[in-house]
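ingest -> validate -> predict -> emit
validate: passed (alphabet ok, no gaps, 437 aa)
predict: started
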Amino acid sequence: MSLRSADDIFETIKRRITAASSRLPDDKRPILGWSATPVPDLEYALFRLGQAGIAEELYYQIFASKLAGFAEWTGKPLTQDDVPGLGDTFREVDPETFDVGRYNQYVYSADLEEWARGQGKTRIPATRATGEVRVFVRNDSITVADGTLFETGGGSGGQSVTTDTGSEPLRYEAIGDHQPAVGESAVTVPIRGVSGGIAWNVVAGAIDHVPAQRAPTGDIEGVLNNNPVTGGEAAETDPELRERARRTLEYNADGVTEQAFVAKVYHTYREEYSIETDDLAIVPYRDPADPDSERAYPYADFYVDGGPPTADVQALADDWAFPLEINVKAPTRHPLAVEATLRPTKESTTADIAVERAENATIRFLSEFGIGEGLSIQRLTATIMNADFEDIGDIDDLSVTDQATGTTVPPGTDIEAEIGPYDKIVSGGVTFSVGER
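emit:
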């Protein structure tokens, strides 16, 4: 399908009708008029202003429906600057004749919302500002009822909202019923804006009127907010909703996952720094300050043990098109100091050499731990014994001290609970001595 203009469609209709008419007998051939001026001929009115115009509208409606299925274009009015790129993607678009205004008549936010729902996202509504006001009443028997309205006026704030009828005060409603203490003539009342939006965030002193009570008469004699009213947020805009849903689509797409970034780092640095996949770990999470907020994009901590500088990996994460905001970190290291007395076998004549071999084997053993991997005492014992099983008969006084915490692990206890999922065991020194046979 090509997006054809009404003039182009009209010329096609005119050509076909003229050709068909020319094949009729002279006495049957109609006299055709195609002029638009000074008064449009019947044929011009029927086929240019009528049929061709309707067909052009249908072309743009169909094309707008087509683009409603694309993340980049759904619900998005176009500008003339968008047209060249659109022509590169869709062959039916001729940048020279494409009518942006005609297309935008058929662009609806509802299309974007429907597409976003397909990604499991709905528009985040506006949130209402909240705060407190001090309400001054005639006496302590007066109750400030739930829903009582207060508004901004001409005080120190003087803030307002623009509506179709002009500028109007910002209104707030009381939350719950409130009555002053005995003998008091004022009570603190929690409030919220009657509508959501940032306009309802006002400075201290802005709320100083009660609607329909412009003078200090009646049960309520006055009102004032001594502190700012905050927390109002606008509803999510179309660009924000589109971006959030698009990132969700990318996040769920094959190949665009957190593990894809692990692979990216591994293949980028494995030769230069000899890193292994065990040296890398990624932990997605939401904004800890507001973990339930849908406004925040997912975050991820990415741990790199040794290898490339964290600044280089952070630059790679920032440059790579990825739906997570990645924070590159180094794992918390736990240097383990291992000490023991090795009892040689009766046949051993090279106990000192055996101790050296055991120390070297233990150092290698401690250097091979991956991120989050705990220490098994059984594996450590086997490593020491197997370093020279002919000369090492037994192990006495084996102790392991975590130098990060300064704690010595009780004999026979594995070091697992102390090692977090994104911590790393490293060697903190190995000291073995020769004991009695």
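The longest helix spans residues 42-67.
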